[in-house]
Design a protein that fits this description.
By secondary structure, the protein is of the alpha/beta class. It has helices spanning 34-50, 71-75, 86-109, 125-131, 159-166, 169-178, 184-189, 200-215, 219-234, 237-251, 254-265; strands spanning 2-6, 10-15, 18-23, 55-60, 114-118, 121-123, 135-139, 143-145, 182-183, 195-197. The strands form 2 sheets. Strands 1-2-3-4-5-7-10 form a 7-stranded mixed sheet, with helices on both faces. A 3-stranded mixed sheet has the order 6-8-9.
Length: 282
């Protein structure tokens, strides 16, 4: 059964335990208008809380994946000064930046793995988005660009804390200092993307195939993997070893292990319980 919902900047389709979020403003290169920053984290958080989807795929329509933050976001008071009181304006701007950052932190926070399929330009804020995902894939025409430097600002929505943990620091520095376009082939070479596909169609087909492989595994095991990898990235080896021990002591599910083996012996896909729905703030 497939369920589809439409939002201002994207559609959401859930089918076979895969949630597909597709940016759908190709005429504007899928730039992120104010509505995007409100709707996107809400949808991702709802997918995470509900637990029906086992993997989230993000793609887009048109020539470019995303041109980044739309100028209208800046025009809605973000850079307006308070006459005679710049500190008050700076404090308000800090809150706005934190709100924007939360938009993509929702991807890292999600219980499910997030896969991103990138074609054409992945520019500015779009780099912030994809670096918060679990895995990135590209078509041969894709390129990645930290455009903020070229327009006189320092990227602040999430690129730097994550990019330098995904690719060698020297490349993160070169990309940010020069605002150059990093082509798909080089992105794969330095580890920014997992795989490069010849065409956008082949890209989406390939990413969906990977998503199906993920969706066929125990949701509890997969969400544990995501949590452990993210934790290990940000903590010492000793702390990470302790955490995985505590996790499995409480959440290792023998029924899922048994079902995996039985299903394989019977030549069928395993059947697992979905993640339990969680209510925000409870």
């Amino acid at each position: 059964m497939t369920a589809t919902t439409n939002h201002t900047c994207f559609t959401l389709e859930i089918s076979d335990h895969i949630a597909h979020v597709q940016l759908n403003r190709p005429e504007k290169a899928n730039s992120m208008i104010p509505a995007f920053w409100l709707e996107f984290p809400k949808v991702i958080d709802e997918l995470s809380q509900n637990g029906d989807a086992r993997v989230i795929v993000i793609s887009s329509q048109g020539k470019h994946f995303c041109a980044g933050m739309d100028i209208s976001v800046f025009m809605e008071g973000a850079l307006d000064g308070e006459p005679g009181n710049p500190q008050v304006s700076a404090e308000a701007f800090l809150h706005k930046v934190h709100s924007l950052q939360e938009t993509f932190t929702s991807l890292e926070r999600a219980r499910q793995p997030v896969l991103v399929a990138c074609q054409g330009g992945v520019i500015g804020g779009a780099v912030d988005m994809v670096t918060a995902a679990d895995c990135r894939y590209a078509s041969a025409d894709a390129f990645f660009c930290i455009q903020e430097t070229a327009i006189g600002m320092t990227a602040d929505v999430g690129t730097f804390p994550r990019l330098a943990k995904v690719i060698p620091e020297g490349w993160a520095r070169q990309m940010s200092y020069t605002a150059e376009r990093l082509p798909a082939a080089k992105a794969k070479e330095i580890g920014l993307v997992n795989e490069v596909f010849e065409t956008p169609d082949a890209l989406l087909d390939g990413v969906m195939e990977i998503a199906r492989k993920i969706a066929n595994h125990s949701p509890l095991a997969v969400t544990g993997c995501k949590r452990m990898i993210t934790y290990a990235r940000d903590h010492t080896t000793a702390d990470a070893l302790n955490y995985i021990g505590v996790w499995n002591a409480g959440m290792l599910r023998p029924d899922d292990i048994r079902e995996s083996y039985v299903a394989k012996s019977e030549g069928r896909l395993p059947e697992f319980h979905k993640l339990k729905k969680v209510e925000p703030g409870v």
